[in-house]
Specification:
The protein is of the alpha+beta class and 71 residues long. The chain has helices at residues 7-11, 43-52, and strands at 19-24, 30-37, 60-62, 65-67, 69-70.
Length: 71
């Protein structure tokens, strides 16, 4: 629901997958959002924005304590 397919990508007939790398922090928030593999035409930026708007995740646990993990 948070993703809008850019008009420039539609006009250029650009379709595909955008791969995003990010970190889930100890409090479940998302940080360090980066494009791992993009397709351009505004799709990369739209995917990054969708990830930044995600609700908090459940953080990973190590020996019962929350830790930050790169996804």
């Amino acid at each position: 629901a948070n993703i809008h397919f850019p008009d420039s990508a539609k006009k250029a007939h650009v379709y595909g997958k955008v791969y995003i790398a990010f970190t889930v922090e100890t409090d479940g928030s998302v940080s360090h959002v980066l494009i791992a593999k993009g397709i351009g035409h505004g799709c990369d930026e739209e995917a990054m924005q969708a990830v930044k708007l995600m609700p908090k995740w459940k953080p990973a646990l190590l020996k019962g304590k929350p830790i930050a993990v790169k996804q």
